[in-house]
User: Fold these one by one.
Assistant:
Number 1:
Amino acid sequence: MNSRNKNAVIIGAGIVGLSSAYRLACEGYDVTLVEQESEPALGTSHANAGQLIYNFGAMGSPSFLKNLPKTLLHPSRHGVIAAALCHPKNWPWAASFIGQCSPQQWQNNSLKLIKMANRTREALHTLKEQHDIDFNWRGEGKIIIHETEADLIAAEKTAEFQRNHGGNHQVIGRNECLELEPALKESTRKIAGGTYLADAEIGDCNLFCQKLAGVLTNKFKAKIHYDVKVEAIIREKNQIAALKTSKGMIDGDIFIMCTGVNGLKLLPDSFAGKKPIIGVKGISLTYPIGNCPPNLSATDTAGKFVVARLGDQIRVAGYAIFSDNLAINRKHVSLLAKKAKALMPEAANYDEDPVAWTGLRPQTPDDLPMIGKAGFENLYINAGHGSSGWILALGSAEELLEKINE
């Protein structure tokens, strides 16, 4: 039986599930997606920062470990709230994560991320040409703001690593930052300089998901079942026969898990490649565009937040809160808005109430997703992309197909 006679059932219609479905549909599979929400991308893919940076480093690093005490003492300043790692239930994840923070492990993990991200870039550009979908994509670049001279010195080391592996990272001074991005000229944040990424891109992940779902249903005749919760995996010997769902049974030839934090509970114990997953909550605010919107997306490393233009809106995104609680904390919203206004006072109409959103990033200790066979002959996984799902989705779908074809 070749791929053109096979039905692939994908659990999850976020950016990773849709990307996986698209790649399999291109290969000739009949594709069915099962999504518990009422439309695609209502989870972690919905209102993220939109960044498409193809040369970046893993979260677990010597500097992250070094700064962890400061982070625990001053979480509001640094935007990382890691107190939950002290809870016994999270100790296995924390212990594994610490093991990934050595210089060698950071480099190994980062190189794997860079490879996968660059596969996404190639696949995304091809997809854009083939289907002409509009998702507020722009390729003007990005600037990463550094607060102190010491930060600039550290940034140069990172930039050198990225340049050695295909990146285009240039460390520049304060004046060059203001020339490149006029929206920073009235900033009251400390700016010693920055790292300029000329080839960075940006796009609205949610809008892309909506359009890609349309491509799947219209061009490839894919089936997408919304408001359907997967309750159990039905097994026959070493195969998956069907999914038991809230609306009946769904059968298929192969099954792929592309779920977030909670959906991975369906994975069988026999899956040897299973990694611990923890939810890392992010917060975003979406404003109407202001009088001086940025052309570049900008990351403030001291405040751990991003300001970016997506079409006629400004997206402010920040925080890494180790938590499984999606509730919106108004103090966090207020502080994030205050920091964004200080960085780019005229970028957005800050007088308007923003659309606030939270999402849980499914974070593995090594920052690398699980891709491949998942315990049964016809069960696969493509999940655990952390904060980089938008950057890695299409690249991980390429790797998934390779695993299926092995």
Note: The chain has a mean pLDDT of 95.
Number 2:
Amino acid sequence: MLDNQLESSSLAQPLEPLLDLSSRQAADIFARAGRAQSNLSKLTLDIRLAGLRKLLDYVVENRDDIIDVLCRETRKCRTDALVSEVLGVLDNFEWLLKNARKILREKRVSTPITLLGKRSRIVHEPLGTVLIIAPWNYPLHIGLTSILAAYVAGNAVIFKPSELTPMQGLFEKLFAVDPVMADSIQVVYGTGKSAEQLIEQKPAKVFFTGSARTGRKILHQCAEHLIPVDLELGGKDQAIVFDDVNLERSVKGVIWGALTNAGQSCSSVERVYVQSGIYEQFVALAQQEIEKLVLNSGDAGNADVGGMTADFQLDIVHRQVIDAQAKGARILTGGATLLDNELFYRPTLITGIEDDMALMTQETFGPVVP
């Protein structure tokens, strides 16, 4: 059995501790956002879209530098940073540029008989100041997509990136391409305590992406103030493979779905059900393909899988694999870190999973194909 190759590892650098906000600082941030919102409400959608176009062009022109920051802070391989972060966010920008006018356009609608003689219409108005709390697994893609959707709709934005991947200075450079955007979007650093202080200022809406555990806390705090909240949380998704598929293509698709971004995606494939007629072939080919994968972070574009961003997540992944193995599951490849004290977990193929195993019932969020 071949070991996964490691080209050269440029791992994430230790970050300086971030200072959390006081209640006074949070209030000042919201006061500034209120002033920005007042100015923004006087400007047209065309002005906001012009800023978005500038931002899109800046990301394209500076993509290599942006990828360097992503690899340094997240341990992604360059392919993941390019495809799932940079290209993903550019695609969303293009979608907004194409569709924002249609979505935000005033619409005439039918009038109920009880309002005979009146005319009805739908008018889209900004909510106000929106708080966006982004995760560490896709800090650029999820962060910018959420921010720009709110901004294009006319809202001032307060953005708190994850303390694990703050990318300090990068977001400020991005928004500085347009003065209106720079005035309307504030970046605030800190831990969950800073998020709590910001929510206490009663934003018009909160958008959070992250774990179910943290999502529950945010939902509870928002409910106390009747703040509308969007939560994009974790999952435990499965792939179902029938025996009439193109085997080679299906194996590669499942591996990509499970291992892209080192499995650190809320929609990654975390369980695979294969019809018995092709099960043995599928497993053998999957093992063969997984053992070819190259691990690296900050590479020259020749790696397939990067490292884990958070040490606590690595611990969760390894505990689940060991639990499954202790209960009878069989590790065909992987199942361990690549190097001691490095956050590279070898892509793992494991069979014989049962319902009493954490690997079957709990989110894994790592490079494991069960």
Note: Residues 236-369 form a domain with the Aldehyde Dehydrogenase; Chain A, domain 2 fold (CATH 3.40.309.10).
Number 3:
Amino acid sequence: MSIADSGSAPALSGDEKSAVRDTWKVVYPHAEDHGTTILIKFLTENADAKKFFPKFQALKTADEMKSSPVLRDHAKRIMNSINDMVVALDDTNAQNAQMNGLSKKHANDFKVDPKYFKVISNVILSVIAEGLGAQFNDAAKNGWSKLLTTTCIGLKSAF
């Protein structure tokens, strides 16, 4: 399954939920590093998106980004939001509330282009897959794709 950013949020099967939770237990203890990798990859592959991050404007290289406390802090916030989604896998109301709040901030305060939610979600998926290797099986891939689809749809709700 590929990540979508419109339509209905897909339901995860029990196996997919278990796979997401199990893989997240491996990823989340290193949230800041993984989140930093995600942001660096996103910003280097989508240079035009950098305009939505005024605090990152002076960061020109991947090394500068990697050592930036401001970027690393934002990376932690992204990973903590993903953690909230994983924790609430069985509570779609909590997931929706979380994403609606973030959507309003991104639409009203940050004025981001919502097309980037799907783009960064694909980066998140690829970084998680790379980090997990063989542990990123079909159930994990499908579960993460569905969770990130739910995230994208929720993040676009205020646009």
Note: The radius of gyration is 15 Å.
Number 4:
Amino acid sequence: MRWRSKDKQRYYTWDRRHGEIEVFNSRGYHLGALDAQSGVRIKDPRKDRRIDV
């Protein structure tokens, strides 16, 4: 499942395995992971993670 922010600068994907939200920028680069309940960033960006946008 994937969502896009209103300003189209961020993409959000649901990480079913870990129960968190992964955040990517508009170019597909990983920006970190958010807690699904609070929205607080819980993991730092990983350079090896990208999505096709």
Note: Residues 22 and 33 are 4 Å apart (CA to CA).
